[in-house]
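Late entry, written up from scratch paper. The run itself happened at the end of the previous shift, but nothing got recorded in the book at the time, so transcribing now.
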Amino acid sequence: MNKISTKHFILFILGTSIISCKTYLSIFVDVGGRSTWLASILASFIFVCFLLFIMNTFKKTNNFDIVDIFNKSTPKFISSLFLIIFILALFLNAIEAAAVEANVLHSTLFIDTPIWYALAFFIVPSLFIFGKKIRTLLIFLIISFSIIIVNGILFFLLTQSYKDINNLLPILGDKPISNFLYSALMILGSMSSFMIVTPFLKYIDKTEHIRIHSLYAGVISSAFIILSFIGVITAFGPLRAANIFYPEFVLSQRIELAGFLEFGELFFIIQTVVGLFIKYILSTYSILLICNKFIKRKAVFIGVYTFLVFVLSNFLGVNNYMLYDISKYIQGVNLIAFIVIPFIVFIIYYFKFLPKKSK
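Output as recorded:
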């Protein structure tokens, strides 16, 4: 069966909404300062509300095909334009996932390993999954995210002794309110990546619990992200946390257990590599689902697509500063492609549905 359940869909949402924010926390702290954790709470509240709105629209209209919703909500030219922007945002997120993963490996443990070499070990295994059914993807997702959850909990527990809660005070004391709001929007843009998996909704077998299970996913995602911001700010302070490329990696290096075990870097590497691989897989698979009718030769399409991702990711991943600067713009693109445009499309479609229901 090429079907998934609403419980499985929780993993799809978690797999896309968490990892980017947790990996490069410093770009958000650089903008929001000490109160970035408060901005993450505000962003999380909006994220959960928007997630429930999207799922409620799917459920109320009994249409779980996002392409069909785009096509029926607005005139053909506008709907096509919106859909192209959505697909380009998926492609951009795939590039981001590949570039950040390669840069993480190059910048932390394997400094002598070139970016292209790290990308090869990241992109080539994905080709196996792209040729398989959703059931194979689901099995991979269940195993991978189970590892990430256990890894995240252990990392949180083992780093508690290295944090000072006083680093969170005074609240809203170091940055103007405009920075606070800007950081909240950036975080919301990162969390909005959950829209990557909406093309999978048409494969859900039974949809009666889609809203409550989406709520669970939203709350869990929010908790992970809020605790991550609190963790790095309490561990380093806002100034230091804003000037480290990968704060959780440096925090993981502090872990020492029983006086002789030092293996904290493993937690960060597992979380980052597996998490970004999941995001890359889901972004690319969603493009394949949306463009399925237009792809005549799937193998050729995947080959060209993979080559473009490899070249662009290698270009971005070589320079940390450029990658971080572009990552800030990616959050803005996500905000438009995954929040603003879907909100317009779904609210129009929702109200178009209501008159039909009343007849």
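The chain has a mean pLDDT of 88.
(Scratch paper discarded after transcription.)
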